[in-house]
Design brief:
By secondary structure, the protein is mostly helical. The protein contains 14 helices and 3 strands. A 3-stranded antiparallel beta sheet has the order 1-3-2. Helix 8 (109-120) crosses helix 9 and helix 13 (188-197) packs antiparallel against helix 14 (225-250).
């Protein structure tokens, strides 16, 4: 009697299991990086067998999870645990969120900076933006702050490399995303505490004609790195204060 052919799904799984483990990890990592629902898809893969479960837990896979495609659930303990696991794998988005959560609290500022630096090292623009904002407050880290903001605006700065002109199109977008992410993850008590520790805004009035003017509806033009970063610092703090005030009023 002829044997019944194995279902297509089982044949595909058998084919995967025949591959070298590092190839399987690469494939699962690609799923983690490109899926619109990475947590659900990785859970489905992990449920197939112990071999695939082990692959989903590899740092190479966790470091590639497209966390920005997942809805943030900061009041869910399971979600917080997942973020912690991704930070351990140096996932750039997880490092960014963890850094953002800590960097404005004096007691945990150094921890927050370390997380943000890990994310920025993997070309995470929002992390580089926040690092630029925070590090500009100290004289000995201002040059580093300018480098991080230049990392955010790498394309526009390259176009203007033969002049001192600077723009802030990418910074504008990063500031909105970072301030919104911060408000989403903060409790009411943390919000009140943050309002007490925010540094005062800079006086960024510049005597140069046109500095800070809007070239388009999406970005401004500045005469120097210092003018751009002062403008961004003040704008980010206004955004954050406005969002915090709005959510505190809703409580």
């Amino acid at each position: 009697m002829a044997s019944t052919p194995a279902p297509a799904k089982q044949r595909r799984r058998t084919a995967l299991l025949a591959l070298p483990y590092d190839v399987v990890v690469d494939i699962v990592g690609l799923v983690a990086a490109t899926s619109t629902h990475p947590f659900a898809d990785l859970s489905s893969i992990a449920a197939t067998c112990k071999f695939m479960y082990a692959a989903t837990k590899e740092p190479e896979v966790l470091g590639r999870v497209a966390l920005d495609k997942e809805k943030r659930r900061w009041h869910n303990n399971r979600y917080k645990t997942l973020i912690g696991n991704l930070v351990g794998a140096r996932n750039p988005e997880a490092c960014f969120l963890s850094g953002l959560m800590h960097v404005f609290m004096p007691k945990y500022m150094q921890l927050g900076l370390a997380f943000l630096e890990q994310a920025a090292a993997k070309c995470h623009k929002k992390a580089a933006y926040v690092l630029g904002i925070v590090l500009y407050n100290a004289d000995d880290t201002r040059n580093a702050a300018k480098r991080y903001i230049s990392q955010v605006e790498a394309h526009s700065d390259a176009r203007n490399r033969h002049s001192t002109k600077r723009t802030n199109a990418e910074c504008s977008e990063c500031g909105h995303h970072a301030s919104w992410a911060m408000v989403q993850m903060c409790s009411k008590q943390v919000m009140w505490d943050l309002r007490e520790v925010f540094p005062k805004p800079y006086d960024n009035q510049c005597g140069s004609k046109g500095c800070g003017s809007g070239e388009t509806a999406n970005y401004n033009a500045f005469c120097s790195d210092d003018c751009r970063i002062k403008y961004e610092y003040n704008r980010f703090m206004r955004l954050l204060n406005g969002l915090l005030f709005y959510f505190l009023q809703k409580e």
